Amino acid sequence: MKLGIIGLPNSGKTTIFNALTRSTLATGAGTSGQFEIHTAVVNVPDTRVDQLRDMYKPKKTTYTQVTYVDIGGLDKGIGEGGLKGEFRNQLGQLDGFIHVVRAFKDENVPHPYDTIDPQRDVESLDGEFILTDLVMVETRLEKIDAELKRKGKTADKAVLDEQEMMNRLKAQLEAEKPLRDLNLTEAELKPYRGYGFLTLKPTLIVVNTDEATGDVGIAYEHAMSMVVNLKGRIEAELSQLDPDDAVMFMEEYGITELSADRVIHVSYQLMNIQSFFTVGEDEVRAWSVPIGATAPEAAGVIHSDLQKGFIRAEVMNYADLLAAGSEAALKTAGKFKLEGKEYIVKDGDILHIRFNV
Ligand SMILES: Nc1nc2c(ncn2[C@@H]2O[C@H](COP(=O)(O)OP(=O)(O)O)[C@@H](O)[C@H]2O)c(=O)[nH]1
Ligand SMILES: [Mg+2]
User: Fold this and answer.
1) 309 — phi, psi (to 5°)?
2) 31 touches ligand 1 (CB under 6 Å)
3) Worst-scoring range by mean pLDDT, 16-20, 82-86, 103-107?
4) For 2-269, CATH number?
5) How much is the pLDDT for 321?
6) Residue 18 near ligand 1, beta carbon < 6 Å
7) What's the pTM value of the predicted model, to 2 decimals?
8) Which of 5, 8, 10, 74 should be mutated for ligand 1, with most atoms under 8 A from CB?
């Protein structure tokens, strides 16, 4: 999962990136407004994996991972008729956005629009994304028109289908609404995923507050979207501390879960994904799949051969295993199942795939 941290200059993107990835990138004066991309990969914390590791004592323990990308310099393209070129392509390849908006007040930190107004800032960048998608849709429609003129009645049905879809998307964008609000199905979208429409991507709005500001509400009623308040600067400082020391300060600031954990948890919800596990002497490992995935689809996440040659899945659920205390006790309790191709994987399932290629 690759999440892009976006927002206006000085909204606190790099500060939040540092908090999420325990990095120490320079922030503030001189770092803003530059066209720059920083990437960091972090393990997804999961106490279930820790428990399974204690139970199986494997040689290796592997968590799922999230990649965070801090994207500076977004403002460069704003107000110029949509984002373009390599920058637009980079954004198109992300799985979702963490949109940082500034609510903290600090006279030493200039705001590109001078005043602090998180609602305006959210709408400003959203408007730019809508425009960027609209440009893409219009470009496709022009190409389709040209092809239809050239080929007449012999044009592919796929081209006509695309024309119909692009017209639907165009209407939505012209009404200044993000594409994710159309709630299209994966089957409808699949042929067009490659275009990387920006307003189709799940979006977490992070309102960057501080001690003095308190929580700030944002009106943001869209599909695949959520709003959270984070105290960016404090979180970045906490992320540098020993976990034990951090706990002390968290209580002081009324923070119950560090942003690094919180953002991952809400991102999982937003992306509609869940975790399953594989266990053994060699490795205990967490994997992620979309909610609703079948056993063969989950097998395919591990290796394509496991999906191709799928026979059955041996399934135990983590919660059952923990309650039973051991695999043997779980089997006695009748909680060890053999499932076929139709089985829908549940969060916390421990899978062993029987396959033959
Ligand atoms: N007071 C306060 N300052 C912050 C907060 N978050 C970031 N800043 C400051 O705002 C400035 C810009 O932050 P930075 O992360 O570089 O913003 P970016 O341009 O979006 O990457 C820096 O001087 C930060 O220290 C916050 O929560 N409170
Ligand atoms: Mg920055």
Assistant:
1) -100, 20
2) yes
3) 82-86
4) 3.40.50.300
5) 96
6) no
7) 0.90
8) 10
Architecture of domain 292-355: Roll (3.10)
252 and 234 in contact (C-beta within 8 Å)?
no
Torsion, CA 354, CA 272, CA 5, CA 254, rounded to 10 = -110
**Mean of the per-residue pLDDT values of the chain:** 92
Give residue for tokens 């390599």. Answer: 86
Q: What pLDDT does residue 76 have?
A: 59
Ligand 2 centroid to Cα of residue 219, in Å, is: 25
Q: Would the CB of 213 count as within 6 Å of ligand 1? A: no
Tell me the pLDDT tens digit for each residue of 164-182. Answer: 999 999 999 999 999 999 9
Q: What angle do CA 157, 162, 163 make, to 5 degrees?
A: 100
Scored b (16 or more CB within 10 A) or e, 74-109 reads bbebeeeebbeeebbeebbebbbbbbbbbbbeeeeb
Domain extents for the chain? 2-269, 292-355
